[in-house]
Amino acid sequence: MRFIETWIPSTLVSIRDLAPGIREFLIKPDRFDVTGYPVGSHINVSVNVGGQPETRSYSLVGEASPDGFKIAVRRADDSRGGSRYMWSLQPGARLDITQPASLLAVDWSREKYCLIAGGIGITPILGAAQALARRGADVVLHYAVRSRGEAAYLDELAATLGDRLVVHAGDEGRRLDLDGLFASLPQGTLALFCGPMRMLDAARHAWIEAGHPLPDLRYETFGSSGTLPTETFRVRLRDSDVELEIPRERSMLDVLNATGHEVLFDCKRGECGLCAIDVVAVDGQIDHRDVFFSDHEKQSNHKICACVSRARGTITVDTLLRADAV
Ligand SMILES: Cc1cc2nc3c(=O)[nH]c(=O)nc-3n(C[C@H](O)[C@H](O)[C@H](O)COP(=O)(O)OP(=O)(O)OC[C@H]3O[C@@H](n4cnc5c(N)ncnc54)[C@H](O)[C@@H]3O)c2cc1C
User: Fold this and answer.
1) Theoretical Cys-Cys bridge with 287: which of 56, 228, 251, 323, CB 3.0 to 4.6 Å?
2) How far apart are the first and last CA of the chain?
3) Which tens digits make up the pLDDT trace of 162-209?
4) CATH number listed for the domain at residues 113-220
5) For ligand 1, is residue 288 a contact (CB within 6 Å)?
């Protein structure tokens, strides 16, 4: 069960390859209202994965433009196929999208801003960099990439930020030292982060360690591939004979709902916590892939976000669905 999403029929206007494995898409809704959208906004796109409609979110790149919505998609080869579907589209293709929504609240009144992007996490950060530079704000962007050749939007960022763009390219041995960086920032700095989950975990720890208030680190992450490999695991339902197999390419949430064990959900990204269910026993290991629970809650293994988190072995859960309550 999910809250209703309003889909807007749209056309793919053009595509542009930005780097190996990163492609930009310009999408124009049939009825396009060019009012701006908050920095850090994303749209949902209806994709086709294995013949089934699925939703994937993509951050809007840069500030609003009358040409349409610009997104950039990294092709994830070891995946269920949402990004591969996007890459199969050619200009003129029809697709359904949602209105922009933002998860990254920016407070424009700070004296200093620190932007941090890891890889494809540059997409929501680019618009923030443009907006802050336009306002004359004191802003520096730290962009961590494997190599400059694999980095998207380097020219645009250099033009906008000049020497306030610091590229940390792994192949040049320039690792981003989050501890050192955050320790050097004055209190009151607002940090905006978008990057992989492990980098986010490191950023949160470094931010707290440096004595900054956690609400001053605003972040978005694109979903996690977890700390364990994505593999098949089993879910037992408490007080029943039901045992379900969760295959590699499906989530626990999808399997529970498809087999009539209804679990409420909304974001499907491990952010809102609506699909959190009770864990009764773990025979193996849980791989928490959400950003909803605290480190402490994750360690206690009392609950799991069924939409993104996975396991190794078998876990026993209680969905709290009771026959007499249906
Ligand atoms: C707010 C937001 C903004 C985003 N913006 C962007 C953006 O600007 N650009 C961009 O490229 N992406 C963005 N994403 C990510 C995007 O929505 C997709 O997740 C991405 O394109 C991968 O989709 P996929 O179906 O190809 O891969 P998925 O199947 O979702 O796999 C992604 C990763 O999870 C692992 N995985 C594989 N199978 C499973 C499984 N069954 N369950 C869980 N994990 C699995 C894979 O190993 C892979 O590393 C954003 C996500 C969010 C939430």
Assistant:
1) 228
2) 13
3) 999 999 999 999 999 999 999 999 999 999 999 988 899 899 999 999
4) 3.40.50.80
5) no
CATH class of domain segment(s) 233-325: alpha beta
Specify the ligand 1 atom closest to the Cα of 308. 43
Centre of ligand 1 from the C-alpha of residue 251, in Å:
13
Distance (Å, whole) CA 305 – CA 6: 25
Ligand 1 proximity of 196 Cβ (cutoff 6 Å): no
Could you tell me if the CB of 311 is within 6 A of ligand 1? no
Of 87, 15, 9, nearest to 49 by C-alpha is: 87
Q: What is the pLDDT of residues 69-116, one digit of tens each?
A: 999 999 998 778 899 999 999 999 999 999 998 878 889 999 999 999
Strand pairing partners for 74?
Answer: 22
CA distance 224 to 209: 24
pTM: 0.86
Residue 73 CB less than 6 A away from ligand 1? yes
